């Protein structure tokens, strides 16, 4: 399946080869104001957007103040985006305090984009509140082709869906960027993933990225860029491209990237008025290796406990009994993820057999669940279909139980379930299944697409969605 | 960070303690950061460090330790973990409400280091009732520190008293965060030492020689050189290094 075809010796046009760059290299070149760059070079990169949230923001702010001074100002109040999203709906005092720290900082610095929440009892009373940062960044128009976005969260790579360079950094680096507006970064070499073929109606982008991670392992792209091209990728919506790029960090990738096209421009049309300039990989650009997939031949997948590269076909796991399903997060809590789940529930006409938790990523997505008609349903909304199927009521938008969080986090995997001999087993549309990721460290997490998650909810076992879609 | 680690365990003597001087840093708000067309700071190689801020990495045992990387050594007992130890196992998400830049919370993070390891790790990294670990050297397999970008991960290890990790390989962000904070040396082994060492083995790391010595088994291993990251970690992270080398202004020491 995977073939490695390296362009290095394939052409006599030396000059073209010398000047050819991948799109990630071009973004680095522009951001460092250099005409030409090669993988491995360390360059100072100008940052277009720095994003931080309630878990890493306070520490980043602490470092910024300690190092640049108590009265220092951020380098650009319009380029810092601060999004409380991780530990919001909790009584944990320190978690609440951390949101207060963000608010005080944003007031002091006059930060333009701060998506605040004050009334924790009713998220809808907070018009500024968005929810999960990576989805909010896209919905608010902060993801623009050709730019550099750094964030204090490993899933910042999600924004590569827009043809921008986006990667996660730590508090100390973020503290530096807050003061300096730039960061020393190494230009990564690029792995290219060419996905062609018509996407079967039972697959989602989650299956594609689980396929890739299973192929190259959880460290297969460490320090590398992952570029996604091919007719299948071109056919994906922006939300699906975000799912694809979201999980490159689960392969160790520095960034994931999809070339901008008409789908990108259309999505951005009503979200940003700032000019942007997409870049594209040259025909003769060098790729470390190239992987080709015929998507029409793929099947629904899961990643079994306790690693995102522990790939298996969903149908191979049909005997795995589960006790909950979780649909949410930056990976699998977007509008289309819920529409996909609703499609399965609608097609089956049945009720779920295990508790099914729904956590929309953002306030806008929550609204979509209550307003958008599900295709083929005669005008029903997702929320109506979920209610008829016996799912839990969609929860307040946040990162929720994807990463466990404080003990009182909604849908967190806490103690082992009484009905199970050992531990809780969850099928989840989230991104990681390392031990303890969703709370209890002996909990078993099967990562899957929203289709597979919904199908599994209906049977109480890991289930291939083709059981309901054909 | 250096300043916080100096506060972390001043009385603890059975594990390595970093004796960084707690110096006051000069605010940078007064300096003008250059435009993007210029290099923001002076080249990394110029300006020898001012003598006033010499960080010291001491070890728990009487082994003498000097302040230069070439002769720095760490001596202690090791704790051994396997492949793909992710950040949730190093510091579970429920403890991320602790803010590493606050000294008291830094210390608390240390007390939870590696608490997320499954119960199959019967010997726990931190003994019950303790707030730091008796293991000053962590030995790991492939892809150590994968998962989230939380800087709390190297911070928790550093705050617990870990001086160095020796792994087969690292996840990118964990490596970078280790260097940026100066919390732990992320050293790479040439071979899978995680299968050669056992928790509790007495080991020495000779940093300058890139050598790991297991005194319990009598074996020695070659590590990959830490290179230019070494002096940054020794200084206590990128900011401390930048001041030490004159890239950033330093107040009177």
UniProtKB/TrEMBL annotation, chain A:
InterPro entries assigned to the protein according to its UniProt record, in alphabetical order: Acnase/IPM_dHydase_lsu_aba_1/3, Acoase/IPM_deHydtase_lsu_aba, Aconitase_4Fe-4S_dom, Homoacnase/IPMdehydase_lsu, IPM_dehydratase_rel_enz, IPMI_cat
UniProt domain Aconitase/3-isopropylmalate dehydratase large subunit alpha/beta/alpha: residue ranges: 43-312, 316-460
Family matches, as SUPFAM superfamilies: Aconitase iron-sulfur domain
Pfam families, sorted: Aconitase
Swiss-Prot/TrEMBL GO biological process terms: amino acid biosynthetic process; oxoacid metabolic process
Keywords from the UniProt entry: 4Fe-4S, Iron, Iron-sulfur, Lyase, Metal-binding
GO molecular function list: 3-isopropylmalate dehydratase activity; 4 iron, 4 sulfur cluster binding; metal ion binding
PANTHER family recorded: HOMOACONITASE, MITOCHONDRIAL (PTHR43822:SF2), HOMOACONITASE, MITOCHONDRIAL-RELATED (PTHR43822)
Name the UniProt record assigns to this protein: Aconitase/3-isopropylmalate dehydratase large subunit alpha/beta/alpha domain-containing protein
Organism: Escallonia rubra
From TrEMBL, chain B:
Pathway(s) the chain acts in: Amino-acid biosynthesis; L-leucine biosynthesis; L-leucine from 3-methyl-2-oxobutanoate: step 2/4
This protein's GO CC annotations: chloroplast stroma
GO terms of biological process kind: glucosinolate biosynthetic process
Biased composition (Low complexity): 25-37, 58-71
Record field: catalytic activity: (2R,3S)-3-isopropylmalate = (2S)-2-isopropylmalate
Location in the cell: Plastid, Chloroplast stroma
Listed EC numbers: 4.2.1.33
Pfam short name (any one): Aconitase_C
Keyword match Lyase: yes
Ranges for region Disordered: 1-71
GO MF annotation terms: 3-isopropylmalate dehydratase activity
Keyword Lyase applies: yes
InterPro entries found in the cross-reference section: Aconitase/3IPM_dehydase_swvl, AconitaseA/IPMdHydase_ssu_swvl, IPMI_Swivel, LeuD, LeuD_type2/HacB/DmdB
SUPFAM superfamilies cross-referenced by the UniProt entry: LeuD/IlvD-like
CDD domains to which the protein is assigned, alphabetical: IPMI_Swivel
This protein's UniProt keywords: Lyase
Bias-annotated ranges (Polar residues): 1-13
Chain ranges of the Aconitase A/isopropylmalate dehydratase small subunit swivel domain: 131-182
Subunit comment: Heterodimer of the large LEUC/IIL1 subunit and the small LEUD (SSU1, SSU2 or SSU3) subunits.
Family under the similarity heading: Belongs to the LeuD family. LeuD type 2 subfamily.
Protein name: 3-isopropylmalate dehydratase
Species, as recorded: Escallonia rubra
